[in-house]
Amino acid sequence: MKVSEIARLVDAKVFCDCGEDTEIRCAFACDMMSDVLAFVKNQAVLITGLVNPQVIRTAEMMDIPCVIIVRGKEPTPLMLELAEDSGITVMNTKLRMFAVCGILYNQGLPADTGE
Amino acid sequence: MEDLHLEFTVVPDDFTRAGEVSGKVKKTLKDLGFPPLVVRRTAIAMYEAEINMVIHANGGKITVTINPDVITVVFADSGPGIPDIGLAMQEGWSTASEEIRDMGFGAGMGLPNIKKSSDYMDVQTELGVGTTITIKIFTNP
Protein backbone atom coordinates (compact mmCIF):
# COMPACT_ATOMS: atom_id res chain seq x y z
CA MET A 1 0.00 0.00 0.00
CA LYS A 2 1.41 3.38 -0.99
CA VAL A 3 1.96 6.17 1.54
CA SER A 4 -0.39 8.42 -0.43
CA GLU A 5 -3.13 5.75 -0.24
CA ILE A 6 -2.65 5.46 3.54
CA ALA A 7 -2.98 9.23 3.92
CA ARG A 8 -6.20 9.18 1.89
CA LEU A 9 -7.73 6.25 3.81
CA VAL A 10 -7.19 7.74 7.28
CA ASP A 11 -7.93 11.31 6.15
CA ALA A 12 -4.47 12.47 7.22
CA LYS A 13 -2.71 15.79 6.86
CA VAL A 14 0.83 15.24 5.52
CA PHE A 15 3.44 17.51 7.14
CA CYS A 16 6.63 16.10 5.74
CA ASP A 17 6.32 14.26 2.48
CA CYS A 18 9.36 12.14 1.78
CA GLY A 19 7.92 9.94 -0.92
CA GLU A 20 4.20 9.41 -1.36
CA ASP A 21 4.89 6.51 -3.72
CA THR A 22 6.85 4.61 -1.04
CA GLU A 23 5.40 1.12 -0.71
CA ILE A 24 4.38 0.09 2.83
CA ARG A 25 4.14 -3.64 3.52
CA CYS A 26 2.81 -3.73 7.08
CA ALA A 27 1.94 -1.68 10.17
CA PHE A 28 2.84 -1.46 13.84
CA ALA A 29 0.81 0.57 16.35
CA CYS A 30 2.39 1.58 19.63
CA ASP A 31 3.08 4.48 21.99
CA MET A 32 6.08 2.73 23.55
CA MET A 33 9.22 3.35 21.48
CA SER A 34 11.06 0.64 23.47
CA ASP A 35 8.61 -1.86 22.01
CA VAL A 36 8.97 -0.46 18.49
CA LEU A 37 12.73 -1.05 18.80
CA ALA A 38 12.23 -4.56 20.11
CA PHE A 39 9.43 -5.82 17.88
CA VAL A 40 9.38 -4.16 14.45
CA LYS A 41 11.16 -6.30 11.87
CA ASN A 42 9.90 -5.12 8.53
CA GLN A 43 9.67 -1.65 7.07
CA ALA A 44 6.37 -0.94 8.75
CA VAL A 45 4.34 2.24 8.98
CA LEU A 46 4.33 3.38 12.62
CA ILE A 47 0.98 4.43 14.08
CA THR A 48 1.46 6.30 17.35
CA GLY A 49 -0.02 8.85 19.72
CA LEU A 50 3.38 9.84 21.07
CA VAL A 51 4.74 13.22 20.00
CA ASN A 52 8.43 13.83 20.68
CA PRO A 53 11.71 13.73 18.71
CA GLN A 54 12.41 10.16 19.83
CA VAL A 55 9.49 8.96 17.68
CA ILE A 56 11.42 10.10 14.59
CA ARG A 57 14.77 8.86 15.93
CA THR A 58 13.19 5.46 16.53
CA ALA A 59 11.70 5.43 13.03
CA GLU A 60 15.14 6.37 11.65
CA MET A 61 16.88 3.45 13.40
CA MET A 62 14.19 0.99 12.33
CA ASP A 63 14.03 2.09 8.66
CA ILE A 64 10.41 3.07 9.18
CA PRO A 65 9.52 5.23 6.16
CA CYS A 66 6.27 6.73 7.48
CA VAL A 67 4.80 7.80 10.84
CA ILE A 68 1.07 8.41 11.41
CA ILE A 69 0.28 10.50 14.49
CA VAL A 70 -3.21 9.77 15.81
CA ARG A 71 -5.77 11.57 17.98
CA GLY A 72 -5.12 14.88 16.20
CA LYS A 73 -1.80 15.59 17.87
CA GLU A 74 0.58 17.90 16.02
CA PRO A 75 4.21 17.01 15.29
CA THR A 76 6.75 19.45 16.78
CA PRO A 77 9.08 21.53 14.56
CA LEU A 78 12.09 19.48 15.73
CA MET A 79 10.29 16.26 14.76
CA LEU A 80 9.66 17.61 11.26
CA GLU A 81 13.27 18.79 10.93
CA LEU A 82 14.58 15.34 11.90
CA ALA A 83 12.06 13.64 9.62
CA GLU A 84 13.11 15.79 6.68
CA ASP A 85 16.79 14.91 7.30
CA SER A 86 16.01 11.19 7.52
CA GLY A 87 13.54 11.02 4.65
CA ILE A 88 10.58 10.00 6.81
CA THR A 89 7.02 10.98 5.92
CA VAL A 90 5.03 12.38 8.87
CA MET A 91 1.25 12.76 8.84
CA ASN A 92 -1.48 13.22 11.41
CA THR A 93 -5.12 12.31 11.61
CA LYS A 94 -7.95 13.15 14.00
CA LEU A 95 -8.85 9.48 14.10
CA ARG A 96 -7.91 7.39 17.15
CA MET A 97 -5.40 4.59 17.04
CA PHE A 98 -7.90 1.73 16.94
CA ALA A 99 -9.81 3.33 14.08
CA VAL A 100 -6.64 3.89 12.04
CA CYS A 101 -5.58 0.27 12.61
CA GLY A 102 -9.04 -1.00 11.68
CA ILE A 103 -9.26 1.00 8.46
CA LEU A 104 -5.78 0.05 7.22
CA TYR A 105 -6.15 -3.62 8.22
CA ASN A 106 -9.52 -3.76 6.52
CA GLN A 107 -7.94 -2.43 3.33
CA GLY A 108 -5.36 -5.21 3.35
CA LEU A 109 -2.38 -3.77 5.23
CA PRO A 110 -1.18 -6.59 7.51
CA ALA A 111 0.45 -6.41 10.95
CA ASP A 112 4.21 -6.54 11.34
CA THR A 113 4.47 -10.03 12.77
CA GLY A 114 8.11 -9.61 13.73
CA GLU A 115 9.27 -12.30 11.32
CA MET B 1 40.09 -0.63 4.35
CA GLU B 2 41.86 0.39 7.55
CA ASP B 3 39.93 0.34 10.81
CA LEU B 4 37.88 3.47 11.24
CA HIS B 5 37.72 4.86 14.79
CA LEU B 6 34.97 7.24 15.82
CA GLU B 7 34.49 8.83 19.23
CA PHE B 8 31.43 10.60 20.55
CA THR B 9 30.27 12.22 23.77
CA VAL B 10 26.69 11.64 24.88
CA VAL B 11 25.39 14.72 26.67
CA PRO B 12 23.43 14.08 29.88
CA ASP B 13 19.80 15.01 30.50
CA ASP B 14 19.13 16.19 26.96
CA PHE B 15 16.49 13.79 25.84
CA THR B 16 15.84 15.66 22.59
CA ARG B 17 19.39 14.86 21.44
CA ALA B 18 19.40 11.22 22.55
CA GLY B 19 19.95 9.14 19.44
CA GLU B 20 22.06 11.71 17.61
CA VAL B 21 25.21 9.57 17.83
CA SER B 22 23.39 6.42 16.71
CA GLY B 23 21.94 8.31 13.76
CA LYS B 24 25.37 9.56 12.69
CA VAL B 25 26.94 6.09 12.92
CA LYS B 26 24.01 4.59 11.03
CA LYS B 27 24.55 7.07 8.18
CA THR B 28 28.31 6.36 8.17
CA LEU B 29 27.76 2.58 7.96
CA LYS B 30 25.19 3.04 5.21
CA ASP B 31 27.57 5.29 3.27
CA LEU B 32 30.36 2.71 3.65
CA GLY B 33 28.07 0.18 1.99
CA PHE B 34 27.48 -2.30 4.82
CA PRO B 35 24.45 -4.59 4.32
CA PRO B 36 21.13 -3.02 5.49
CA LEU B 37 20.62 -5.65 8.20
CA VAL B 38 24.08 -5.02 9.67
CA VAL B 39 23.39 -1.28 9.61
CA ARG B 40 20.01 -1.69 11.29
CA ARG B 41 21.21 -4.12 13.99
CA THR B 42 24.05 -1.75 14.88
CA ALA B 43 21.67 1.22 14.93
CA ILE B 44 19.15 -0.51 17.21
CA ALA B 45 21.79 -1.72 19.70
CA MET B 46 23.47 1.69 19.73
CA TYR B 47 20.25 3.65 20.13
CA GLU B 48 19.11 1.50 23.06
CA ALA B 49 22.48 1.95 24.77
CA GLU B 50 22.57 5.68 24.02
CA ILE B 51 19.08 6.15 25.48
CA ASN B 52 20.19 4.19 28.58
CA MET B 53 23.18 6.53 28.98
CA VAL B 54 20.93 9.59 28.87
CA ILE B 55 18.28 8.09 31.18
CA HIS B 56 20.44 6.38 33.78
CA ALA B 57 24.05 7.50 33.59
CA ASN B 58 24.48 11.25 33.00
CA GLY B 59 25.77 10.62 29.50
CA GLY B 60 29.11 9.07 28.63
CA LYS B 61 31.45 8.17 25.81
CA ILE B 62 30.80 6.00 22.76
CA THR B 63 33.70 4.60 20.76
CA VAL B 64 33.03 2.90 17.44
CA THR B 65 35.58 0.82 15.53
CA ILE B 66 34.57 -0.11 12.02
CA ASN B 67 36.37 -2.94 10.30
CA PRO B 68 35.16 -4.79 7.17
CA ASP B 69 34.47 -7.91 9.27
CA VAL B 70 33.23 -6.54 12.57
CA ILE B 71 31.75 -3.38 14.07
CA THR B 72 32.75 -2.87 17.70
CA VAL B 73 31.05 -0.30 19.90
CA VAL B 74 32.06 0.55 23.47
CA PHE B 75 29.67 2.55 25.67
CA ALA B 76 31.41 3.87 28.78
CA ASP B 77 29.71 5.88 31.50
CA SER B 78 30.48 6.92 35.03
CA GLY B 79 26.89 6.53 36.19
CA PRO B 80 25.51 4.67 39.21
CA GLY B 81 26.21 1.16 37.87
CA ILE B 82 23.70 -1.71 37.54
CA PRO B 83 22.92 -3.33 40.93
CA ASP B 84 21.59 -6.63 39.54
CA ILE B 85 22.63 -7.42 35.98
CA GLY B 86 20.48 -10.59 35.95
CA LEU B 87 17.36 -8.53 36.61
CA ALA B 88 18.39 -5.84 34.12
CA MET B 89 18.66 -8.51 31.41
CA GLN B 90 15.06 -9.64 32.01
CA GLU B 91 12.57 -8.37 29.47
CA GLY B 92 10.11 -5.97 31.11
CA TRP B 93 12.24 -5.09 34.14
CA SER B 94 12.96 -1.38 34.35
CA THR B 95 13.90 1.30 36.89
CA ALA B 96 13.00 4.18 34.56
CA SER B 97 10.91 7.01 35.99
CA GLU B 98 7.32 7.82 35.06
CA GLU B 99 8.68 10.79 33.09
CA ILE B 100 10.85 8.52 30.96
CA ARG B 101 7.91 6.17 30.36
CA ASP B 102 5.85 9.14 29.20
CA MET B 103 8.57 9.72 26.60
CA GLY B 104 7.99 6.19 25.28
CA PHE B 105 10.90 4.43 26.96
CA GLY B 106 11.50 2.33 30.03
CA ALA B 107 9.63 -0.77 28.88
CA GLY B 108 12.47 -2.90 30.19
CA MET B 109 13.57 -4.00 26.73
CA GLY B 110 16.86 -2.07 26.52
CA LEU B 111 19.60 -4.50 27.55
CA PRO B 112 17.77 -7.59 26.20
CA ASN B 113 17.35 -5.81 22.86
CA ILE B 114 21.03 -4.76 22.77
CA LYS B 115 21.96 -8.41 23.28
CA LYS B 116 19.49 -9.60 20.66
CA SER B 117 20.67 -7.05 18.09
CA SER B 118 24.37 -7.82 18.48
CA ASP B 119 26.55 -10.92 18.07
CA TYR B 120 28.49 -10.34 21.28
CA MET B 121 27.78 -8.29 24.37
CA ASP B 122 29.87 -7.77 27.49
CA VAL B 123 28.73 -5.70 30.48
CA GLN B 124 31.18 -4.52 33.11
CA THR B 125 29.52 -2.60 35.91
CA GLU B 126 30.47 -1.39 39.36
CA LEU B 127 28.15 0.41 41.75
CA GLY B 128 29.03 4.07 42.08
CA VAL B 129 31.77 3.79 39.45
CA GLY B 130 30.02 3.21 36.15
CA THR B 131 29.17 0.78 33.40
CA THR B 132 31.00 -0.21 30.24
CA ILE B 133 29.15 -2.18 27.60
CA THR B 134 31.00 -3.63 24.62
CA ILE B 135 29.12 -5.00 21.63
CA LYS B 136 30.24 -6.56 18.38
CA ILE B 137 28.28 -7.00 15.19
CA PHE B 138 29.86 -9.31 12.63
CA THR B 139 29.32 -8.12 9.09
CA ASN B 140 29.35 -11.58 7.46
CA PRO B 141 27.44 -13.74 9.94
Task: Describe the SSE topology.
The complex is a heterodimer of chains A (about 120) and B (about 140).
Chain A: H1 3-9, E1 13-16, E2 26-29, H2 33-39, E3 44-48, H3 53-61, E4 66-69, H4 77-86, E5 89-92, H5 97-106
Parallel strand pairs in A: 2-3, 3-4, 4-5
Antiparallel strand pairs in A: 1-5
Helix pairs in contact in A: 3-4
Chain B: E1 4-10, H1 20-31, H2 36-56, E2 60-66, E3 70-77, H3 85-88, H4 98-102, H5 110-117, E4 120-126, E5 130-138
Antiparallel strand pairs in B: 1-2, 2-3, 3-5, 4-5
Helix pairs in contact in B: 1-2, 2-5
Spatial order of strands in the largest sheet of chain B: 1-2-3-5-4
Structure summary, number of beta strands of chain B: 5
CATH-derived topology of chain A: Udp-n-acetylmuramoylalanyl-d-glutamate--2,6- Diaminopimelate Ligase, Chain: A, domain 1
CATH architecture of chain A: 3-Layer(aba) Sandwich
Q: Gyration radius of chain B, to the nearest Å?
A: 14 Å
Describe this structure in words.
The complex is a heterodimer of chains A (115) and B (141). Chain A has one domain (3-106): 3-Layer(aba) Sandwich (Udp-n-acetylmuramoylalanyl-d-glutamate--2,6- Diaminopimelate Ligase, Chain: A, domain 1). In chain A, 37% of the residues lie in helices and 18% in strands. Chain A has helices spanning 3-9, 33-39, 53-61, 77-86, 97-106; strands at 13-16, 26-29, 44-48, 66-69, 89-92. Chain A has a five-stranded mixed beta sheet with strand order 1-5-4-3-2, with helices on both faces. In chain A, strand 4, helix 4 and strand 5 form a beta-alpha-beta unit. In chain A, helix 3 runs parallel beside helix 4. Chain A starts with a helix and ends in a 9-residue tail after the last helix. The model of chain A has no long low-confidence stretch (mean pLDDT 94). Chain B has a single domain (4-138), classed as 2-Layer Sandwich (Heat Shock Protein 90). Chain B has helices spanning 20-31, 36-56, 85-88, 98-102, 110-117, and strands at residues 4-10, 60-66, 70-77, 120-126, 130-138. In chain B, strands 1-2-3-5-4 form a five-stranded antiparallel beta sheet, covered by helices on one side. In chain B, strand 2 and strand 3 form a beta hairpin. In chain B, helix 1 runs antiparallel to helix 2 and helix 2 (36-56) runs antiparallel to helix 5 (110-117). The A-B interface holds A 31-35, 37-38, 50, 52-55, 57-58, 60-63, 78, 86 and B 15-16, 18-19, 22-23, 26, 36, 40, 43-44, 47-48, 51, 103-110, 112-113, 116.
